[in-house]
Amino acid sequence: MNFSVSMFYSLLSLMIFSFSMEEKRSNITITCYECAGMDISVSGTHFLRNLPKEIYRASFASSGIAHIQLTNSDTLHVFLRIGEKDNPGIVATPLYIEPGMNLDLVYHNGDLTFKGDLGLVNSYYYKLLKVSLESGDYIDLNSRKYSQFSDKEKESYLAGIRLFGEELNQMIKEDQSLSDYYKQLLISHNSISEITQRLRVDSDKYLVKRRLKVNDVTPDPISSDVFSEVIIDPNLLQSSYYVFWVRHNLGLKIDDIWEYYDENKDKIKTSRYEYIKYVIKRNPNLVRFQELILALSITHISHWDGVRYDDLLELTASFEDDYPHSKYLPELHEILADHDTLRNGMPMKDFAMHDVSGKEFRLSSLKGNIIYIDVWATWCGPCREELKYSIKLSKKYANRTDLKFLYVSVDKNRELWRNFLTKNLSLKGTHGIQSPGNMPFDSSSIMSLYKIDGIPRYILIGKDGNIVDYDAARPSRLLTNNYLDSLLTN
What we know:
This protein folds into three domains: about 5-175, Immunoglobulin-like (Sandwich), CATH 2.60.40; about 205-340, no CATH class; about 350-490, Glutaredoxin, CATH 3.40.30.10. The chain is of the alpha+beta class. The protein has helices at about 5-10, 120-145, 150-175, 180-190, 190-210, 240-270, 270-280, 290-300, 310-320, 330-340, 380-395, 415-425, 445-450, 475-480, 485-490, and strands spanning about 25-30, 40-45, 50-60, 65-70, 75-80, 90-95, 100-110, 110-115, 350-355, 360, 370-375, 405-410, 430-435, 455-460, 465-470. Helix content is about 40%, strand content about 20%. The longest helix is centred in the middle third of the chain and has 29 residues, at about 240-270.
């Protein structure tokens, strides 16, 4: 998928955790005579983390007809795909499904038509996809220049996103066959691209304010009213893409709250969890979203470099005490279980990458050695600064064949990566690149597997293939101590 398709997929897909009393079966029938024998899948999204998850897979019969049954007790926003994702001839569309509703899709001559209980609504969702593809290309183009935009240029850019959906919004408003509820639902989803980009602008403004912080002292979250500019639209909370950007915005403020807590915990005299609850309650507009904000806070913290399993266990246990029936608990438990697998001594998480010649290889091919993994990119200044020490470190241990230095680039541009290595031949070791088109949402990427939220990042794997430290010391620090020597002698 390219950026705009995957953005729309994240925007509309939602894995629902529902606690309704009654579940109903929804039936979807797809007719595609040219698709006989092809796979068909329905995917949702982990709500808090915005990671994709397949929830149904089937195949077309020889007749070219496929039947899908979904048992749900709440509204589902999912994504239906015909064929494998790398096949250029696939069919892909978002679907809106309500419990007990039936939907018929017919694919013919390159187009989809929708019939059944929600046929009209889903035909509009299909049109929304086409608008998203156009606005996604516009966003992609401007993202490259975004950092140089003035405030006026940013506002013009945001207004430009809105233009892509205006014609469709007018069509929706004038359609007498749609109820007011569905009109508002469709128009809201048609505006998410602009809204999420506005959240991006708000994040940038907050970062500027943070950089201008006087004397490097973290302001008191209470007196500075850290959440005063946070606005949550309840009409968009079914979109995991919107929630992803809300979490991004909240995350900047949560970082400041936690930093202040660490600097003043002796006088605060309460737990981290209780302190952030107190900060939320100080803002009357956010009290009704307290459960969501706390769940997103724990999710955000789970991506911090160096966060440990015990920290997340304590936070999740406190959340569960407050909300024992929360719909967010299953995913928080999944996050906790993921971090449990990253504790020291647990088996390494294997992944694939490509070498400079384009040949695929895996981390496991280096098993039997101590592996020091450097996750970096050519555009990352701190990464390049540490590479100077990496060169010295590899020279120091040049005679140790049982210590392997693995450099995993997350560059999108492979040619830039190859050129950088050509110009820096003294950077000895094994080089690989892992740059799928949608890295943050790819569950097989090193970024997802090892919970990496920022680079550079370093990981140590032992000779037995188990994790020594999934957030290891930087090369500059390892040069000044004997930590690697102690591992090599064991």
